[in-house]
Specification:
- By secondary structure, the protein is α/β, with parallel strands linked by helices.
- The chain is 44% helix and 14% strand.
- The strands form 5 sheets. A 6-stranded mixed beta sheet has the order 9-20-12-8-11-10, sandwiched between helices.
- Helix 14 runs antiparallel to helix 15.
- The longest helix is centred in the middle third of the chain and has 29 residues.
- The N terminus is likely disordered.
């Protein structure tokens, strides 16, 4: 078996962060205002560096909400001389002008201006604005080393492609050159910005060998590219005389272009091999493997249940070698969570005997991942709410604002479909069922972080309101205000009440006709829908996540999900699918006997309003831990069950949520569409 390690992107240049941090000497001022139209301040390393210096960063979005938070959390604390008050506050204004800010803030604050034009003077600002923020630290470093003069748009695109993505379109002359670069990027989940993908297309357009290839789409749309590769793989095996049943993949529809890929080329096969191992590509189920089949290609076929078991084991080993750590950026964790979801989904599809044989390996992998994640959360979770969401939400409370940006970009009708309690591995299972039964559907898959603690009243309420939990402190223990939150957000965006829909408790096919009638309202612009079937299955689970997977399969067979999505698409909605939190298997560590002392009594977390009570409980249950979470109300203190423990009778096996395991904390965020 051949392995390909993903590039280690945990190491990032600090030169850009150091350049920005020089603007903020810790002894100059208590209040800072930064005009930052390009969100360069909201870099993970910059935010961490500011926090180390005692600064907090507060993006300015709503003047009324901002003033209330500033007066309560900062000015009052400074005037009272509170010992735990922040040392300084940086107000980030996402505009080149700070005129919207109150005059009294402007008068007392120290002002700083940051922009991509100032930081990258030799590169085209027009191009820079279309790039992802994750590449800026590396780009800043290579600009210092290699940019000798000011560049126009075309030269900047070539510079970025060459030095950041390691792609030189002028050197792509053969199919193996093209597919080597495409597969390398998609295996690393590195999508080219549209402007760079179109530039490559322009360079290759006059080369006959690529005349029928949708170059720009292949480089910029991972889901589309993988469907093309998947179909090419089955046709390649067919030429070798192998015919079998496709696992989780239907016969490619006519609208998927049939492109031939040189799989036997060494540079291609080493990447394809690894993509089968981690679930990015699906193998072909066959009867018997001919002696003539190359060894490298065996990862792409499954001849019997034992072969699928081996594929799961190799996937576990591969993930074990590529576990993110405390220095990794948040994108490494969301990418890893999605790959882990693929392997867990395959694991639950095995028969009981083979699954039992891998149980220890799987348990060790998720335990290590949870341990590393907890360390990472303690160091970096506080910065996540401030990260920009222009390319996609980092946390669930950013989803409404991201959808508003999509509407502003032309997606007039938007549907947010929230699968309550859906973990990434369960989304993988649903997706594969959809691909089998609804081949026209295409999925642009990403992931984001839920709010801690991962309870419905906290994370789902944040998801529909667009607010951090401390901003709905009065209602933090109930979901009853979700319709008002959802309506308020969209009315603030200029919509009328009759253009906004919220519905929850959707779960069965016989409920769809009534929903379809509501969705057919021509005035409707946005719909927020809660599908709670998975959450109901979880709370009634007695056979662990393996039993949950079996029930989800039965539910998918009812056709509910594909009918719901087709209904929305046929009504002209752009669909975004996500979850408020995931779920994980856990074992009871004992139930605290405290009556009403605990405000929210989840299986994985208890919350308290009393410092004395939470301290006593933490002492009484050593297998628990505390974590101060920025964004929660000050008097709302969570106590988490450690590792994969739960506050239920000792030894009880349960499927739960509320904690910070990878399966609970990182949830899918998926754009669902029809193949063009």
């Amino acid at each position: 078996m051949t392995y390909l390690s993903k590039d280690n992107v945990a190491h990032r240049s600090t030169l850009l962060a150091e350049r920005i941090l020089k603007e903020f000497p810790s002894d100059l001022a208590r209040l800072w205002i930064v005009a930052d139209p390009d969100n360069v301040l909201l870099d993970e390393q910059v935010l961490a560096g500011l926090r180390e210096r005692g600064f907090e960063v507060l993006p300015f979005e709503d003047s009324i909400a901002f003033r209330a938070e500033y007066e309560e959390r900062y000015r009052a604390a400074w005037e009272a001389g509170e010992p735990n008050a922040p040392g300084a506050l940086v107000i980030q204004v996402r505009d080149s002008s700070t005129a919207e800010l109150p005059w009294d803030y402007l008068r007392q604050a120290r002002k700083v201006s940051l922009s991509l034009a100032e930081l990258f003077p030799k590169l085209s600002y027009t191009v820079l604005r279309q790039l992802g923020s994750e590449i800026l630290p590396s780009l800043f470093e290579v600009q210092a080393r290699h940019a000798t003069q000011a560049m126009g748009e075309a030269a900047t695109k070539e510079f970025v492609l060459t030095h950041i993505y390691r792609v030189s379109p002028h050197l792509i002359s053969r199919p193996e050159d093209l597919w080597r670069e495409l597969l390398r990027l998609h295996y690393r989940e590195t999508l080219l910005p549209q402007t760079l993908a179109e530039h490559i297309h322009q360079v290759l357009a006059d080369r006959q060998v690529f005349a029928s290839s949708p170059i720009a789409e292949l480089f910029s749309n991972r889901s589309y590219a993988l469907r093309v590769v998947q179909d090419a793989w089955y046709r390649y095996l067919n030429k070798l005389g192998l015919i079998g049943r496709r696992t989780a993949e239907p016969v490619a529809p006519d609208y998927i272009p049939q492109l031939d890929i040189p799989f036997e080329h060494h540079d291609i096969r080493v990447i394809v091999d690894s993509m089968f191992l981690d679930g990015t590509l699906h193998p072909l189920a066959i009867q018997g493997v001919p002696v003539s089949l190359p060894e490298w290609a065996k990862a792409g076929v499954v001849q019997d249940p034992a072969a699928m078991r081996n594929l799961v084991l190799e996937g576990i080993k591969s993930l074990s070698e590529e576990l993110p750590g405390v220095t990794s950026p948040h994108r490494d964790w969301t990418h890893f969570a999605r790959r882990l979801g693929e392997v867990i989904s395959r694991f639950h599809s095995l028969d009981a005997v083979r699954a039992e044989g891998l149980k220890a390996d799987m348990k060790d992998l998720v335990a290590r991942a949870d341990s590393e994640l907890q360390t990472w959360v303690q160091a970096h979770y506080a910065d996540l709410p401030s990260l920009p969401a222009a390319k996609g939400p980092v946390m669930v409370h950013q989803v409404p604002r991201y959808l508003a940006m999509r509407r502003a970009n032309g997606e007039e009708k938007i549907a947010l479909v929230v699968f309550d309690g859906l973990a990434v591995d369960q989304w993988t299972q649903i997706r594969e069922n959809l691909i089998q039964h609804a081949p026209r559907l295409m999925f642009n898959e990403n992931a984001c972080f839920a709010w801690l603690p991962t309870l419905t009243s906290i994370s789902r309420q944040a998801l529909f309101s667009g607010l951090r939990p401390r901003e709905f402190a009065e209602h933090i223990e109930t979901t009853s205000k979700e319709p008002q939150h959802w309506t308020r957000f969209w009315q603030d965006q200029g919509l009328r009440a009759n253009e906004i829909l919220y519905r929850k408790a959707i779960k069965r096919t016989d409920e769809l006709p009534e929903l379809q009638e509501l969705l057919s309202n021509p005035a409707l612009k946005v719909a927020g829908l809660v599908v709670d079937t998975v959450d109901e299955i979880i709370h009634g689970a007695v056979l662990g996540k393996r039993g949950v997977a079996a029930q989800i399969n039965s539910w998918c067979e009812s056709g509910f999900v594909d009918r719901l999505l087709a209904m929305l698409l046929d009504q002209g909605f752009h669909i975004y699918l996500t979850a408020d939190h995931g779920n994980a298997e856990a074992v009871g560590i004992g139930r605290p006997n405290q009556g009403v002392a605990s405000e929210l009594r989840g299986e994985r977390v208890r919350t308290y309003r009393s410092e004395t009570m939470i301290a006593e409980t933490a002492t009484a249950i050593p297998a628990s831990f505390r974590l101060d979470i920025a964004g929660l109300p000050a008097n709302f203190m969570p106590l988490f069950a450690g590792e994969r423990g739960a506050f239920v009778p000792k030894g009880d096996q349960v499927v739960v949520h509320g904690g910070m395991s990878l399966e609970e904390l990182i949830v899918p965020f998926v754009k669902v569409s029809y193949v063009n």
